[in-house]
Each structure stands twice: as C-alpha cells, then as structure tokens.
Specification:
Blueprint: H1 5-10, H2 15-28, H3 36-96, H4 98-195
Helix pairs in contact: 3-4
Length: 197
C-alpha cells in the first residue's frame, strides 16, 4: 500500500507521537488524510527542516573561508621564503660586482613592490571574505530568531482556535441534550394524554 502524506508526516515519530498526531487530525476535521491541516503541518515541518540546514551551510562556508585563508597563508610564506632566497643571492653577489648588481637590485625592488601589492590585495580580499562571512552569520542568526518568533505566534494562534472550537462543540452538545429532553417530554405528555383520554 502506498504511503499517504499523513504517513510521511508521522515518519520518524514514536508511536505515542503518531497517535497524538492522529487525534489532532481527527479533532481538526473528519476528512481526508491529504487535507489542508496535514498539508499545513507538512509545509511547516519542511520549512523547519530547511531552516535546520542553514547552520550546516554556514559551517561549510566558514570551512571554505578557512581553506582559502590557509592557501593565502601558504602562498604568503612561499613568497617570503622566495624573497629571502633572492635577497641572499643578491647579497652574496653584491660583494663581487657592486655596479652590475645595482641595476639588479632596482629590478628586484620593483618586483618586491609588485609582490607586496599582491600580498596586500590578498590580505584585503581575505578581510573582505571574513567580513562577508560574519555578516552572513549575523543575518542567518537574525532570520532564524524571527522565524522562531513567527512559529511561536502561529502555534499560540492555533491553540486559541482549537480552544474556541472545543467550547462551541460543548455548547452544541448541551443544546442538543436540552432539545432531546424537550422532545422526550413532549412525546411523553402526548402519550399520557392519549392513554388517559
């Protein structure tokens, strides 16, 4: 037999929780398990499942930023090691031929400036990524808080509606009993009237 939406809604619930869901459904309506209340609960549950994935996405983003940061640090260390090696070579040769290496030093200085600019740009890029990650984290945190407050208000509204429906049902039952009593009394008086006539 194919599962209904209600069966999917109860998936992962204990037997007591599934029984409670059935009772709630029975109180809401005497209809189809694919009806509006079940669809509403499934939609809400799907939204919460989607919301539960947000922290995971934030963690993955943070890990990705950390990977990029580690790569930038590695590249920076390689650049510094490379610059040190170039500097040592140039210092050793500087003792032998000062004139020739003055030009080489000027060229190395230009290269160094270029590399430092690249390092500065990489550092700014890292800073921007970190700031974006922090901003995204705060936005997600605020969105989750707002969604939780909306969900709480919706639950309170539903509880109020259910309580109102129960009071109306009790009054209708009382009026029904009074009406049945009046009909029985009327029928009894008619029967007695015919009997003693």
């Amino acid at each position: 037999m194919e599962d209904t939406d209600f069966d999917l809604l109860c998936k992962g619930l204990s037997a007591d929780e599934a029984k409670r869901m059935r009772k709630i459904l029975a109180e809401w309506c005497d209809g189809d398990e694919d009806g509006f209340p079940v669809q509403l609960v499934m939609l809400t549950r799907a939204q919460w499942r989607a919301a539960a994935l947000v922290p995971q996405a934030v963690n993955e983003s943070r890990k990705l930023i950390e990977v990029h940061l580690a790569e930038y640090r590695r590249q920076t260390a390689e650049l510094i090691a490379n610059l040190s090696a170039v500097g040592e070579e140039q210092t050793g040769e500087l003792d032998n031929i000062v004139k020739v290496h003055t030009e080489s030093l000027n060229q190395a200085s230009g290269s160094l400036r270029s590399q430092l600019k690249e390092i500065g740009a990489a550092a700014m890029d890292i800073r921007r990524h970190l700031d974006d990650g922090v901003s995204a984290h705060h936005r997600v945190k605020n969105d989750l808080k707002t969604a939780g407050e909306k969900f709480q208000k919706t639950c309170e509204d539903l509880d109020g509606r259910i309580a109102g429906l129960q009071i109306r049902r009790d009054w209708l039952a009382l009026l029904g009993l009074i009406a049945v009593g009046i009909v029985i009394g009327f029928v009894g008086s008619v029967v007695l009237a015919f009997k003693y006539r």
